[in-house]
Amino acid sequence: MSSIKDKIDLNKVPQHVAIIMDGNGRWAKKRNKDRIFGHREGVNSAKAVVEAAGELGIKYLTLYAFSSENWSRPKEEVEALMSLLVQGIRDELDNFIEKNIRIQVIGDLSKLQTEVRQAVEESIEKTKNNAALNVVIALSYGSRDEIVHAVREIARKVKEGDLDIEDITQNTVSEHLYTSEIPDPDFLIRTSGEQRISNFLLWQISYTELYFTPILWPDFKKEEFFDAIYNYQQRERRFGKISEQLSK
Ligand code: FPP
């Protein structure tokens, strides 16, 4: 079977792809199942996309697994999501090690239950020297909270005399975000037809190409990911310049 993958130029894949994995609940509802059923299939989609990103040689893949706003979902759903996450990370750890995948996490981890935090920390620690693909899990993550956190850190340095106000640049802000070691996303995918950003990487996506697809997350597997990357490669990124100024 021919795949859209064959049309992808492997020399021009985005360095960093970020994904808002949306639509698990609606996917389950269409099948008269509970929302957790959708999240479970959503984990399979996350695995498929990690594999696809690895095959293309993408360096960073950020997955929005749980937002700071998701804490206000019903308790059973929060618990189910957390246990799917712990289970998913534990099940995949050997595979991550074998495939040279590094796990990183961005978000307010202080809100996580001990068991969840331990599973996350173990996967970070055991994969910290891996370098093929960085899978960044946004967990208990909210972009405005992240920016507030960065502003506080910067203000503290100014107050303590370690930083001059005049020396604060865009780089200073970037360096104080959870993503300080991670390049800005080139491409952001959101599934399920919603066309919004939902407090995700607001600073980091200034020049990111956006891609919205009606496909619900549990239906988004490798072919759908390749389709999205092919779409990205048809675009011209100008960063405020005109076409003729770009080096081809
Ligand atoms: C959105 O669907 C999805 C989530 C809030 C959770 C996404 C999490 C996973 C797929 C878990 C896997 C992640 C990893 C990294 C193992 P929704 O519930 O908002 O769907 P709806 O909009 O249709 O209600």
Question: Can you describe what's shown?
Answer:
- It is a single chain.
- With 248 residues, the chain is α/β, with parallel strands linked by helices.
- It has one domain: Undecaprenyl pyrophosphate synthetase, CATH 3.40.1180.
- Strands 3-4-2-1-5-6 form a six-stranded parallel sheet, sandwiched between helices.
- Helix 4 links the parallel strand 3 and strand 4.
- Helix 1 packs across helix 2.
- 33% of the residues are buried.
CATH superfamily: Decaprenyl diphosphate synthase-like
CATH top level is Alpha Beta
**What structural class results from the helix and strand content?**
alpha/beta
Roughly how many Å apart are the termini?
33 Å
What is the alpha-carbon Rg in Å?
A: 19 Å
Number of strands: 6
Report the order of strands and helices. EHHEHEHEHHEEH
> What fraction strand?
5-15%
Largest sheet: 6 strands, parallel
Write the layout of secondary structure elements.
Layout: E1 16-20, H1 24-30, H2 35-56, E2 60-67, H3 75-98, E3 101-106, H4 114-126, E4 133-141, H5 143-159, H6 170-175, E5 187-190, E6 209-212, H7 222-233
Parallel strand pairs: 1-2, 1-5, 2-4, 3-4, 5-6
Helix pairs in contact: 1-2, 2-3, 2-7, 3-4
The structure holds farnesyl diphosphate.
Question: How would you sum up this structure in a few lines?
Answer:
By secondary structure, the chain is an alpha/beta fold. The chain is built from 7 helices and 6 strands; from the N terminus they run E-H-H-E-H-E-H-E-H-H-E-E-H.
Which features does this protein show?
248 residues; alpha/beta; six-stranded parallel beta sheet; 7 helices; 41% helix; binds farnesyl diphosphate
